[in-house]
Design brief:
It contains ten helices and no strands. Helix 2 runs antiparallel to helix 5.
Length: 261
């Protein structure tokens, strides 16, 4: 049976993801922990599959508009997917890992880092743009390796906490490609990168039987229409003010998650 409270949470998260490309795990996982009292492992497991399914819809709309930078996506996947798979194998074959008490603390820390990253994104962008223009040859030569390493860091974060693929990923991409990533291209590229990452990261939790399928269905009932609306609006409006508001919300959510651990 569809739970309207979960559907409303899904709609809020789906709209934010659609218009900004960020905030899926960073917003949904703390909501499940703080407002619904869901166990950390169940929240992570369910959120990963929620993110994968929801972002397929958003990515399809953005891809249809021709905004995805596939070269950058492939570089990110080269780091994120192997790293996430390695973490998944540890989760799958080390039962106690998925039950440790520090999962909630890890989620809180990553959410706080995500919030700070969103707040500092304009300054990081300005710094990266300056370096890109002052040292173009050196900057471009380092981009491929740094992108793979950034993907690996995201893979670890997402596989352990379900947080970071969108928000942290967008900050990393903005820093690594300050001239190449227009706002809409950033949203589209970040969304497409996050889909297989969420699937790979979610496999370990799926095999461990930690996904709450009824909760997932309720979340998706709200999120899918909302992400369609948000993705269509993303072509017409800037999502920066929503990102700033989201960052402030995540600061509070991250702190409360840490305090509840």
């Amino acid at each position: 049976m569809i739970d309207l409270a979960y559907a409303s949470a899904g709609a809020l998260t789906g709209f934010v993801v659609g218009i900004t490309g960020v905030g899926g795990g960073a917003l949904m996982t703390p909501i499940l922990l703080l407002f619904f009292g869901v166990a950390p492992t169940t929240a992570i497991a369910t959120d990963l599959w929620f993110a994968a399914t929801t972002k397929v819809v958003g990515a399809w709309i953005h891809h249809d508009a021709g905004q995805v930078d596939w070269q950058v996506v492939r570089r990110m996947w080269a780091g994120s997917l192997p790293k996430a798979l390695a973490v998944v194998l540890v989760v799958s074959f080390s039962g106690p890992l998925v039950k440790v008490a520090w999962l909630t603390q890890a989620i809180g820390v990553v959410v706080l880092i995500t919030a700070v990253g969103l707040l500092l994104a304009p300054r990081l962008y300005a710094l990266a743009r300056g370096r890109r223009l002052d040292h173009p040859v050196r900057f471009k030569a380092a981009q491929p390796l740094l992108t793979v390493l950034a993907g690996a860091a995201l893979g670890a974060c997402v596989a352990l906490t379900s947080v970071g693929a969108g928000a942290l990923g967008s900050v990393m991409l903005l820093y690594l490609y300050p001239l190449r990533m227009t706002p809409h291209r950033l949203v589209a590229t970040d969304l497409v990168h996050a889909i297989p990452l969420a699937v790979v990261a979610g496999l370990g939790y799926l095999f461990a039987g930690l996904v709450d399928w009824w909760m997932l269905l309720s979340l998706l009932v709200g999120s899918i229409p909302a992400i369609i609306v948000g993705s269509l609006l993303a072509r017409k409006v800037s999502g920066r003010w929503i990102q700033m508001l989201l960052a402030l919300v995540l600061l509070v959510a991250g702190w409360k998650t840490l305090m509840s651990a």
